[in-house]
Amino acid sequence: MELFDKLLPYLLSGISVGGQYALIAVGYTMVYGILRLINFAHGDVFMVAGLMMVYVSTWAPLYVAIPLVILLTVLLGFVIERVAYKPLRRAPRMSVMISAIGVSYLLQNLALYVTGGLNKNYPTIPWISDTVSVFGATTKMVTLVTPVLTFLLVVLLVQLINHTKIGMAMRAVARDFETSSLMGIKINNVISITFIIGSFLAAIGSMLFFTNYPGVTPTVGAMPGLKAFVAAVFGGIGSIPGAVIGAFIIGICENIIKGLDTLLTTFGVIQQPLGLSTFADAFTFVLLIVILVFKPTGLFGEKATDKV
Amino acid sequence: MKKILALLLALCMVFALAACGNSSDEPAGGSEDPGAAESEAPASGDNVIKIGVFEPQSGDNGAGGKQEILGMQYANSLTPTVEVGGVEYTVQLVYADNQSSNDKAVSAAQELITQGVSVVLGSYGSGVSVSAATAFGDAGMPAIGVTCTNPQVTQVSDTYYRICFIDPFQGTVLANYARELGATKAYCLAKQGDDYSVGLVNYFVEAFGAENCIQEVFQEGTSDYSSYVTNAKANGCDIFFAPVSTEAAALIIDQAATQDLGMTILAGDTWDSNVIIAAAQGKDNVDIYVTTFYQEGGNAEFDAAFKEWINSDSVNLENNGGNDMIAAVSVLGYDAYYVALEAIKAAGSTDPAAVLEALPGVNYQGITGNISFAEGAKDATRDVAFIKYCNTETGVWDLIGEQGVE
């Protein structure tokens, strides 16, 4: 029981941040599933969503600002795809990837220009910012909301993919790009919708993330973006449940490692702190390497029938 | 259609490049600030002397760097000219953004050197100063450290001088104060690879006793500090010592309030900023004490005039974080500008080598106290720090007292 009490705060942080990684990771994995493209700009879309909220909330009430920011983020994702990726549809895959990196830097530098490089304080969204106490550990309401919301959204998404016409089209395009276009599927629409869904989830993720950690800077999307990407690879890139599970595993492990020194000394396993918390980020990337070495397709990845 | 798109993209890129260029050459909206306006209109013939401003304008320490620049710009607006060997010279401030990043610092320093400045001021943040010290040293360029408190800054090369107190002093003051507050166990948090926070934590631990401290570091790019706050609580500490950048500080304060940290937060000079006030205001369960260089109210006349100047221009107001609270770093930036002018006057030349030779002899009565260098020392003689308390109700810094070490 004592172990549970000590562990709980770390678990809560982990679940909360894991849910936020999950929402970003789904965007990565869907785009990869359909385009075989790693959309490096996705983390920056997440950052721009946060930044837009900062500016929009200065003149609009929250019940206007929240839908508006989601709408604008969706629009941004759509425009990025149309401008930076669509013209390169027939180009080698590498060109699209480089274009994605370019978009990432463009967004970061635009944000740098707009904010002047300074940290912007994220507005407080009522209710989910309230402090709650869970079995003696105090945290924000958002910590509890995140996993529930993530779960709901992912279930909805899976339903959409498995039981609607557009979902069927997505699955077809993911299976075979050329053949599905021969079958009369409007490839461009399917891709646009993929980006719209990805950006929508990134916008929701950004609201949850920045409510917990309320500082928006031009590079704030880089770390969560990278970790969400690792989560997507970990779960098997292309697989939505894989990305979600991967994200939760990474979020929880990361926070437990940050607290490992304290936990171990409390239970007398070690006498002196070992400085393990330093390795919280390193762990994420070691995990990536280990997964790639032993299971290149990830936990739930499709078997390599891919022609890459 | 494709051509138009390509053209549009190219335009976008040009715009983005222009945007970057702008932000690195001068502070945002620079053409409106008095410093740059002065430099565009050379008042007294073609005699211009350039002073380099080596400060972060973006990244972790962007907010602090901008406030430090404000002090220099204000001083420049009051005293835009200097007499060099009987001839009136217009002072032009040349800006280089070191982006709070140790690897960008060297190229920012090189940029200033190639622009032909006579002396360099800066930087906020010790890491960038340490990185750039060799570049300044190799070029024989005199540099005046304004608020970089890590002792290494002036040890790397022969040309770096400094006008503020240093961390072995500050760490001891903080440790003494922690004891005064009745603390017995401290949780110390620093940023991996950041000379300032790691250095200050080390000196604090040295003075407070290593056996009484839990030390941890976090990585660049961290925004989730919840587990560190949990660690401090779980270890039963009664002081949370986190002399990190203001950007991280705002997030730590938020987490401390959420988890009801229940212990005093202690930090160094970087936290003396309205960013901290903004983050802590209304959160009545956080107690924050900081050590710093200057307390608003120390010189009423200066305070009033400086506030008026900040309020006169929306760009200044924005660079100061949206209100007219005076940051200690601005005041030191102001003093640094005059120290540079004194050195130039004494040198009687715009040649960096002559300025370097004259610099140790400067004795200047600044707003933050007397600035002079002891025989052979490159750090100004400083033996007093101010301790302030963040009043979360009124949203101002309350002065607790001045403290030195015996």
Describe the structure.
The complex is a heterodimer of chains A (308) and B (406). Chain A is built from 11 helices and 4 strands, in the order H-H-H-H-E-E-E-H-H-H-H-E-H-H-H. By secondary structure, chain A is mainly α. In chain A, helix 1 packs antiparallel against helix 8 (187-212). The mean pLDDT of chain A is 89. With 406 residues, chain B is of the alpha/beta class. Chain B folds into 2 domains: 27-165 and 304-372, 3-Layer(aba) Sandwich (Rossmann fold); 167-292 and 385-403, Rossmann fold (3-Layer(aba) Sandwich), CATH 3.40.50. Chain B has a 7-stranded mixed β-sheet, sandwiched between helices. In chain B, strand 14 (385-391) and strand 15 form a beta hairpin. In chain B, helix 6 (167-180) packs across helix 7 (195-208), helix 9 (246-258) packs parallel to helix 10 (274-280) and helix 13 packs across helix 14 (352-358). The chains are: A mainly alpha (308), B alpha/beta (406). At the A-B interface, helix 1, helix 4, strand 3, helix 9 and helix 10 of A face helix 1, helix 3, strand 8, helix 8 and helix 9 of B.
